[in-house]
Every structure is written in structure tokens, then in C-alpha cells.
Design brief:
The complex is a heterodimer of chains A (210) and B (565).
Chain A lengths: L1 E6 L3 H12 L4 E7 L2 H11 L3 E5 L1 E2 L2 E2 H11 L4 E6 L3 H11 L3 E4 L7 H9 L7 H17 L8 H11 L4 H8 L3 H16 L6 H7 L4
Parallel strand pairs in A: 1-2, 1-3, 3-6, 6-7
Antiparallel strand pairs in A: 4-5
Chain B lengths: L10 H39 L4 H16 L1 E9 L5 E7 L3 H7 L7 H8 L4 E3 L21 E8 L2 E11 L6 H46 L5 H12 L4 E7 L5 E9 L2 H4 L3 E3 L4 H8 L3 E3 L8 E2 L3 E13 L2 E11 L7 H62 L4 H29 L9 H12 L8 E5 L2 H4 L2 H22 L4 E7 L3 E8 L8 H15 L3 E7 L2 E9 L5
Parallel strand pairs in B: 13-14
Antiparallel strand pairs in B: 1-2, 1-5, 3-4, 4-5, 6-7, 6-12, 7-8, 9-11, 10-11, 11-12, 14-15, 15-17, 16-17
Helix pairs in contact in B: 1-2, 1-5, 2-5, 5-6, 5-9, 9-10, 11-13, 13-14
Classes of the chains: A alpha/beta (210), B alpha+beta (565).
């Protein structure tokens, strides 16, 4: 039985997904949340196999929630859910360290299929794709002289994020405290959040002036 | 003896009286003559001061001088700052003769002596004077000579030269009269100059006000080009260039050129090293030079610029460019006042440009905010609700009869299509126009909008997968080329009611599908047009499929995803 936790601020969306998942014999929805704060607490308590997280939440971003959840408990797999397009979704998923993403298409999204794969420990974003994301973020960043570039440490961290490592794992690799890694990542995210179109994903994720 | 005798003066006394009488008459005549000459001087003064236009004033001065002392030739030389003569206005010499002599005097010989030492020179015979350097060929003979300096506000402006007095030589009285005329001339020149300057200032101010008004009332005008055109006529210049710093710090570029060679010069890149404009840009101070060739400011045909002035264009506290105004070599110099006027003008234009930019920015921000809000609403409400409704329908479908189920499935597919369309709209709305060319998504949306006016309906556009992430560089060029060619075919041949562009990125492939419901390819013209598209696919190890009949045309173009380098 795959135990799934749903995070989306639209009740209708949660109800729709919940109905769809509950009809499957091997899937069980064990909890729901509509805000980032609720999600952190409830996921910690319920320890689902897979958390399905909308990127935009009223009090924060699904990306942050995903990273924190996985730092607490790397066994929890995350699937990013978004109403935006694939390009935005894949940036979000890579930055969140999620196993994959699902866009909000009823038939085309393959939600069930994706859930089962992720629960089985598979990654939906191959390393070529996540490599591209990292490449694009650094390229775009360097080509924009108006913004100060990422620090050397942030450059070290970005590919590790793309590998899907948790904050703790990144800390172990680089010999840093988990908390320090967390700070670096939020700095990195906020820098990228100021990027233009190519990082619009991140802009939305940041939830700043939206 | 007394009666019969006539009264008689002694001879010697008579002689004295005759002499006295004749002296008296002579004096009386002198007085008359002097009065006549003084009257002539008054007339001459009047003739000089009644005009206000500088070239006319200068000519009147020479004419009055010639009349006053009965000279055959007269001339006025205006002294240039480097010591020679800048202008030479002559009277009495026929134009053909002047043309034969060729160049005008440059201020050598006696003319030069007067420039070096500004005191009246009067000689009976030019050729006998040691300071004389002789005449050029074809020059008519000149014997007697009188030259006096003309001072304007304590500065020697030029000299008045007269030669060939009708009675042989010039007298001391002639010298006094001409000196008096020169004093009046100085005042007349000063007035004419002030008048001309006031006039020019008015013209600059009027032009400035006009440009400001134009800037603030409409978006469409090319400010810099308008400015350059006005300055060209206001400054009576031969060239006006607006130079701007470029990303390459070694070069400046001519953004706008007006006047001689404007087409050649517009867009030219000028090395910063040692350039006049760069020095002005750096110092942020207006500057004036009399000889542009010092800075290699030379036009085509080896025509150097002479007088040049340059003014920095300052925007938001930063010097962003230089307004350069030049005249050809040997043209009248620019004066300090010209530089001041040009600087004021550029300053006001800069302020107006800033205001206009600020206003356009505000309008743009308002529009972008509006678009952003619409995009957010579409995403936050419309997509979520459609998705949720689709989910519920999907769930219901499983629990009903097969017939209803298939209808529900169809409805869900329609909902998905709507979501996809809205997603494309959200994308198009949510991104700033400045990034337009960046991504393949934008390029395709732009292409569809571009051909829309020539089609029955705007082509529908659909994307699946991370297209911008995967399709970049030369692959993006290929995809865009295929879309463009295929759309042009639809426009030209298909007479279609609807058409669509679908671009999908899967794990290992890029798939592009362009379809229409038109009349299909008749004959081979469309086929040959697409063979180059097929080649693009083959080059990437992919393939193309082109099917066309009278129900429409379907083009699929598939290539494997390349590994990122």
C-alpha cells in the first residue's frame, strides 16, 4: 500500500486528486494540508511514502517544504505538483530535491503512474535533465551582469541539489552543518528568485510578490 | 593834388592784404571743407549703425570708409584667434579680378604689421615701405595706403584698410576721420553681434521648448534624431553626431548622424583612445576646438572638420553620450556663447528625455502588472478549478456505463486542452517583453501571432514537456525554422480554417507537429519547400513525415534529444 500525503491550497483540487487516488487498490491518502506550516507538521507526524506538493502555498513554497521534509526523513519521496508548465515544474522539482513533478493535467499528467514509480524509489527526472537545469541556472545567472553571481559555496551546492540530495547529505558531502546548508540554499533560491524569465519558475516558487 | 588823385595803397601793403584775404578765404574754405567732411563722417556713422545684421554692417563700414576719404579700394579683415585673417570683405575690386587673384589676403606684409601692432598705419607709397611683401599676380597696383584697427570692447576685432587715395596720398585728417569711423564701427559690430546672439538664443530656446513638448505628448518620436536635426540648423553646422558609449569600452558608436556623410557615419564605431568625444564624455564638460583635424575628425573626400563643439549628454546623473557639432575646415568658429547654448539645449533635452522615459516606464509597469494579475488569476483560479472538475469527472467515469464513460472521457480531454491553452496564455502574459527572444516557446508564440492576420484563425499552440530547457541553441534555430516554413506554407497554399502547432519534449525525443485542415498540397511546390526541413531533421539523426491530401496537411518533425555539452 502506497501512503500518500496531499498538499494543495485548493480544496477542490485535493478532493479531486483524493477521489482519484482512493479508487486505486494500492494507494491510500493518509492526510492533506492546505498550507506549508500544516504540511511540515503533519508530514512529520504521518511519515507518508510520497508527499504530493503544490509549489505555491499561501504561506510559503512547496519547494521549501519538500527540502525540509526530506532533511527530516529522506525516506519520504516528494512529487511536485504545479499548474504552470513543464519548464517551470522541472526547475521547481530540481531545486526542491523532489523525485519528480506532475503538472495539472487530468489525463496527460500520469499522476498514478508517477506516484507508483516514485514510491518504488525511482527518479522521474533523469540526471541529464537535472544537469541541464543546473547548467541553465548558472549560465543565465552568469550572463546577467546586473545581479551579483552566486558565491563559490552556492556553486558547490547547486549540482548537489540537482542530484536530489537532502540538506543533511549535502552538509555531509561538503563538511557543513545542516543548518548552514539550509541557509545557503535559501540564499541561493532567493538570488535565483530575482532572475528573469528563465527562472520564472523560481520566481513563482518564491511566492514573493504574487 | 588831392582831388583828382585816386586813393592808392602802397604796393607792399596791398600784397599783405591780398594774402590775408586769401588766407581768410582759404580758412573759410577749410572750415567749409572740414564741415563737409564732418558731415560726411556723420553720414558714414549713420550708414554703419543703421544696420543690425553683421555681414551687412561689415560691408557698410568698408563702403563708408571708401567714400569718406576718396579711396579707390577698401577692405575689412576680421582677425582669427590664431592671428591670421578669418574674413576679408572688400570693396572696389571687381569680382572677376578678385577671382583671378585667387585666395584672399591672409594677413602678411603691411596687413600683418597692423595685426601685430594695432595702431593706424599711413604710407604714401606701398611699394616703398619696408614692411610690404608685394602683391600676388593679377593684383591691381596700389600706392597710397591707410589702415586702422577696429576695436570691439577693448579687443581688436579687425582692421579697416583703404588704398589709392584719389588725390595721391592720405592726409592726417583722413586718418583722423577713419579712426573716428572705426570707433563707431566697433560699436555697430558689437550691437550686431549681441543682436545675432539674442536671436540665436531665442531660436535655441524655442527649439528646446518644441522638443520638450513633443517628447511629453507622444511616444512615437525619435527624440535623438529630432534633436540632432534641430541642432544642425540651429548651430549652422555641417555635421551633428550623437555618440554613445558601447559595451566595448574601447569604442563609441555614432547612434545618430545628421549633415554631411550622415549615411556613412551613422552606426560607425569610433575608437575611444584619443578621441575628442571620449574626452568630453569623461570630463563631463562641454568643450570647443577650432581645428577638428587635431582629433582626426575628417569626413569623406579628405575634408577635415574645423570648428567643433561637444556637449556631454547626462541622464540620471550619468554621462551616457556626447552631442558633437562640427563645421567644415575654414568655417567661422563656434563661440563660447554657441557652446553654452548647445549645452543648455542638450541639458533640457536630457531632462525631457528622462521625463518621457519615466512616463513610459510607468505605463509599462502598469501594463505588466495588469498582465501579471490576469496571469495569476488564470493560474490560481481557472486552471485549478478546471483541473479539479476534470479530476472529479474522471473519478465518476469509472463508475458509470461505458457509453457515458466515453462521453465523460471526451469531456475530460476537452478540459485538458483548455488547461493547456490557458497555460500557454499564462506563459505569454507572465513574461516581460524584454525577454521575448530568449526562448523557443516565445519564438513560436510570436510566429503564430505573426501569421494570424493572414489566416482564418490564429493557429493553436500547445507545448508538452520542458521545451525551453531542452530546445536551445541550434536545435531551437531548427525548430523555429521548421515552424516558420510550415506556417508560411499554410498561409500561402492551404486556405485552412484552422491550424495547430504542437511541440512536445519526451524523455528522449523532440516532436513537432504542424497540422491544418486546408486543401492539401497540390503539385510539388509545397513538397520541395519542406525538403530542406527534412534535411534539418536528418542532420540530427531524426526524421520528418509529410502527409497531405484534400482534408489537410500534417507535418511531423522528430529528432532525438542531444546530450548537453
Amino acid at each position: 500500500m502506497i501512503r500518500v500525503f496531499l498538499v494543495d491550497d485548493h480544496e477542490l483540487v485535493r478532493r479531486g486528486i483524493s477521489a482519484l487516488l482512493s479508487a486505486e487498490a494500492d494507494i491510500e491518502v493518509i492526510g492533506e494540508a492546505s498550507t506549508a506550516a500544516q504540511a511540515r507538521a503533519r508530514i512529520r507526524a504521518t511519515r507518508p511514502d510520497v508527499a504530493v506538493l503544490d509549489v505555491r502555498l499561501p504561506d510559503g513554497s512547496g519547494i521549501d517544504v519538500c527540502r525540509e521534509v526530506r532533511s527530516d526523513n529522506p525516506d519520504v519521496k516528494c512529487l511536485i505538483l504545479t499548474g504552470y508548465d513543464d519548464d517551470e515544474a522541472i526547475y521547481a522539482a530540481v531545486l526542491a530535491g523532489a523525485a519528480g513533478y506532475v503538472i495539472k493535467d487530468v489525463q496527460g499528467s500520469g499522476l498514478l503512474d508517477s506516484l507508483r514509480k516514485v514510491a518504488a524509489g525511482k527518479k522521474l527526472i533523469n540526471s541529464t535533465m537535472s544537469g541541464r537545469v543546473v547548467q541553465r541556472i548558472t549560465d543565465t545567472h552568469h550572463s546577467d551582469p546586473r545581479l551579483e553571481s552566486l558565491s563559490a559555496r552556492e556553486h558547490d551546492i547547486l549540482p548537489l541539489i540537482a542530484e536530489g540530495l537532502t540538506n543533511r547529505e549535502i552538509g555531509e558531502r561538503l563538511g557543513l552543518a545542516e543548518k548552514t546548508v539550509k541557509n545557503y540554499i535559501s540564499g541561493l533560491l532567493s538570488k535565483l528568485g530575482l532572475q528573469r524569465r528563465t527562472q520564472a519558475a523560481v520566481l513563482h516558487l518564491e511566492n514573493r510578490d504574487l | 593834388m588831392n582831388d583828382g588823385h585816386s586813393f592808392a595803397f602802397p604796393d607792399d601793403a596791398r600784397g599783405e592784404l591780398d594774402k590775408a584775404l586769401s588766407d581768410l578765404m582759404g580758412r573759410a574754405q577749410d572750415v567749409l571743407a572740414t564741415q563737409g567732411r564732418l558731415r560726411a563722417l556723420l553720414r558714414a556713422n549713420q550708414a554703419v549703425i543703421e544696420h543690425i545684421d553683421l555681414p551687412v554692417v561689415l560691408r557698410r563700414i568698408v563702403e563708408a570708409g571708401v567714400d569718406l576719404v576718396g579711396a579707390q579700394y577698401g577692405a575689412l579683415g576680421v582677425i582669427s584667434p590664431d592671428g591670421g585673417l578669418e574674413q576679408f570683405i572688400h570693396v572696389g575690386m571687381p569680382d572677376e579680378l578678385a577671382a583671378q587673384i585667387g585666395h584672399l589676403p591672409e594677413g602678411h606684409g603691411l596687413l600683418g604689421a597692423l595685426i601685430e601692432n594695432p595702431h593706424a598705419i599711413r604710407v604714401p607709397e606701398l611699394a616703398a615701405d619696408p614692411r610690404s611683401v608685394g602683391f600676388p599676380a593679377h593684383h591691381p597696383p596700389m600706392s597710397s595706403f591707410l589702415g586702422v584697427p577696429i576695436r570691439v570692447r577693448d579687443e581688436v576685432y579687425g582692421n579697416l584698410y583703404l588704398s589709392n587715395q584719389a588725390d595721391g596720398e592720405f592726409t592726417a585728417e583722413d586718418e583722423s576721420l577713419i579712426t573716428a569711423l572705426a570707433a563707431t564701427a566697433g560699436i555697430a559690430i558689437e550691437n550686431a553681434r549681441l543682436f545675432a546672439e539674442t536671436h540665436r538664443r531665442q531660436a535655441w530656446a524655442a527649439a528646446s521648448a518644441e522638443i520638450t513638448a513633443a517628447l511629453l505628448s507622444s511616444d512615437g518620436i525619435d527624440v535623438v534624431s529630432t534633436l540632432a536635426t534641430r541642432v544642425l540648423s540651429l548651430a549652422d553646422a555641417d555635421v551633428v553626431w550623437v555618440l554613445q558609449a558601447t559595451e566595448d569600452s574601447g569604442f563609441m558608436s555614432v547612434e545618430t548622424a545628421r549633415g554631411i556623410d550622415e549615411e556613412l557615419i551613422q552606426g560607425a564605431r569610433i575608437p575611444v583612445a584619443g578621441s575628442f568625444s571620449a574626452s568630453v564624455l569623461e570630463a563631463r564638460q562641454p568643450r570647443l576646438i577650432d581645428d577638428g583635424s587635431e582629433y582626426h575628425l575628417v569626413l569623406s573626400g579628405d575634408r577635415p572638420l574645423g570648428p567643433v563643439m561637444a556637449v556631454p549628454l547626462v541622464s540620471l546623473g550619468r554621462a551616457t553620450g556626447v552631442l558633437l557639432v562640427g563645421r567644415l575646415h575654414q568655417s567661422p568658429r563656434f563661440r563660447r556663447a554657441d557652446l553654452e547654448m548647445a549645452a543648455d539645449f542638450a541639458g533640457q533635452a536630457s531632462v525631457a528625455m528622462e521625463l518621457a522615459t519615466g512616463r513610459m516606464d510607468r505605463e509599462r509597469v502598469a501594463m505588466l502588472e495588469d498582465r501579471g494579475r490576469i496571469a495569476r488569476d488564470l493560474h490560481d483560479h481557472v486552471i485549478q478549478q478546471l483541473f479539479a472538475a476534470g479530476m472529479e469527472l474522471q473519478t465518476v467515469a469509472g463508475a458509470t456505463s461505458p457509453e457515458i464513460s466515453s462521453r465523460i472521457t471526451q469531456t475530460v480531454a476537452d478540459i485538458d486542452a483548455s488547461i493547456s491553452h490557458i497555460r500557454t496564455i499564462v506563459f505569454a502574459l507572465g513574461s516581460p517583453a524584454t525577454d521575448r527572444r530568449d526562448t523557443v516557446r516565445h519564438a513560436i508564440i510570436d510566429l503564430a501571432n505573426e501569421v494570424a492576420p493572414r489566416l482564418a484563425r490564429t493557429p493553436s499552440v500547445n507545448f508538452a514537456g520542458p521545451v525551453d530547457l531542452v530546445i536551445a541553441g541550434t536545435l531551437a534555430d531548427d525548430v523555429i525554422a521548421v515552424v516558420r516554413e510550415a506556417l508560411m506554407n499554410v498561409v500561402k497554399h492551404a486556405a485552412a480554417q484552422s491550424s495547430s502547432i504542437e511541440l512536445a519534449v519526451t524523455d528522449d525525443e523532440v516532436q513537432l507537429r504542424i497540422t491544418d485542415d486546408g486543401q492539401g498540397a497540390k503539385g510539388s511546390t509545397r513538397r520541395s519547400g519542406v525538403s530542406n526541413l527534412e534535411q534539418r531533421a536528418l542532420n540530427r539523426g531524426g526524421h520528418m513525415n509529410f502527409a497531405s491530401d484534400d482534408t489537410g496537411t500534417r507535418l511531423t518533425w522528430t529528432v532525438p534529444i542531444e546530450e548537453p555539452t
